[in-house]
Amino acid sequence: MKKEDIQNLISQMTLEEKAGMCSGADFWQLKSVERLGIPSVKVTDGPHGLRAQDEQADHLGINESIKAVCFPTGCATASSFDRQLLKKIGKAIGQECQAKEISTILGPAMNIKRSPLCGRNFEYYSEDPLVASEMAAALTDGIQSQNVGVSMKHFLANNQEKRRMTNSSQVDERTLREIYLAAFEGAVKQAKPWTVMNSYNRINGTYVGESREYLTDILRGEWGFDGYVMSDWGAVNDRVEALKAGMDLEMPASSGINDALIVKAVRDGSLNENVVDQACERILNIIFKFTENRQPDAVFEYEKDHELAAEAESDCIVLLKNEDEILPLAKEQKVAFIGKYAETPRYQGGGSSHINSWKVESAVEAVREIAEVTFAGGFEDDVDEVNEELQNEAVRIAQEAEVAVIFAGLPDNFESEGYDRKHLNLPNCQNALIEKICNVQKNTIVVLHNGSPVTMPWKDRVKGIVEAYLGGQAVGKAVVNILYGNVNPSGRLAETFPLRLEDTPCYLTYGKGVDEAVYSEGVFVGYRYYTSKKQEVLFPFGYGLSYTTFTYGNLKLDKSAMTDQEALTVSVDVENTGNRAGKEVVQIYVAPGESETARPVKELRAFDKIELAPGEKKTVVFELDARAFAYWNTELHDWFVESGDYEIQVGKNAEEVLLSESVQVESTKKIKKIYTLNTCMGELMRDEKAGAVFGQMMSGNQQAKEMAEANQEDPSGAVNAEMMAAMMNDMPLRQLLSFVPGMTREALEQILAAVNQ
Known about the structure:
The protein is about 30% helix and about 20% strand.
């Protein structure tokens, strides 16, 4: 529907109807206005499948939803590093929405994994904003290609479950821009989401839903978002202030209470009716965008989408260890599958994203088409206690086999929406089982079903580790395909696996406090922290093994020097030097040189996933613009590129640099500095203009000149050259009054006046 037609509809609506349009009709439906031909549309939970409820609807997943297909969760799909795969999944989800008459799916979920303790990390993509942004944009492109909207969530800085509805994220401007806003920024600009969902929490004391800065100035003004903002379910503190800030739609219905507040505010003059009209226009635009592009013949292709879920998960699985090339398994080997999750996999998390899966394919079921294996349950997961009978049976079949494959992971009650994890450990009963198996079977492989990192006290005792994450309803088939080599593993970790909880960047503050979460680690989130600190980890960001080998060479930069107004083209050759086809994730990191600004030693600035046949070579090309070299400068309140050398690194992962070349970048944006009597001499002299003026005006004072040029040892030994240089560097200008005879305050102020012109 054209803009003018929608505005005409709004002009015919009563104030009460317009206010009502700004909230849901019930838990999942938006309101209709039958007399004007405005239909009601439905939204539903996501983000990795449809959780659509018909009757007795609730947001917590207590009541059953329709049968649907559960695709791999965000923690898994991010590990694919594959934009095309995410688009393919998105297209399937969009078709399913059309078949079920759902206008908008609530996802992708793209909050940064600030800590592995966050109970909802299984839904989120990464600790890195580029990965989160690119994966979310790709999924959005796929879904919206079917004329179904997404609701990117949870905007903004929603990184813990503890007191998430009232908690205030205390985070500085630079950190917000570089990490938490950046995850949304690229996706909003690229994929143009129909809607965005604001989070429950506050930021620096203000509810996000009442922040004009985030919902209007940044989201709409800077990034060009033109859809509507909806609240998370129940995330409304002050409805009128939220509407003014840019929260258009309140979900779910408030039984008319907040609608009446909007009407009252318009009538008493505290709310401009144009604000209500604008919100209605945004909402109606999306409603008609869906209804006018309905696909009435769309069908839910359950079996086809199940196969896609298996295909997708196969590309998400990360091979973490493969000692003695124990994998892939041979069909002829005598293999024991051990662990409850081999038969009843844990493939999704708890809460609002929980899918009522049409079917679930376990590894025990899937392996029947490939090989014969024995199976033992090994443990229970409803209680963390060793079941001697189950454990003994598992040890027996492991001892009789050539290879034992243990399916371990986190139970439902260890990670879920609504609460955070307390530690990073697997259940004690599972760790005990793995140790027992290792005592009798040297060829042991562990397959993990978990939504976030776990510690691995048995890492050095097992020969293989396969990270399946929460891989959707076809996870069993995908795992078997990896184990037996039908698919070459190509997943890479989109988050760091630390050795211990105490090593994590926000260990001292995460989960602490009653009403505030202090982001004291700043921009040093995930690998940005571990690599900068040279902190040993269990497995680094970007890590993953393959059944084939890849060789890199011929790294080229199209220029050795550039300004921040130019782009840098980076190319590198990648060759499959193994004997089987495989996919490789090419990772480009940028490492700034020395700086007085605290910056991570490297940041991922580009990536791509390519497929190569044995012996095949491809040249992969990337373009890096100014943002690849920039940090957020809080004096300018803008992105800023420091002049200097930057190293372009091709990384196997965040820790392993394969190739590197340097480029000199010159900044064309100057920060206006105001120098005072408290400015240190070193800072002044590093400024080309200021240093020249200062040097010229001081040249007439012989004692000052001798002091500035002092670089020889004091015969008495009291002062050496290093000490003098350091003292001069850090000496405020006002101290020249004490140390330089004849120096006057007036003279210094004249110098400052000339420098500050």
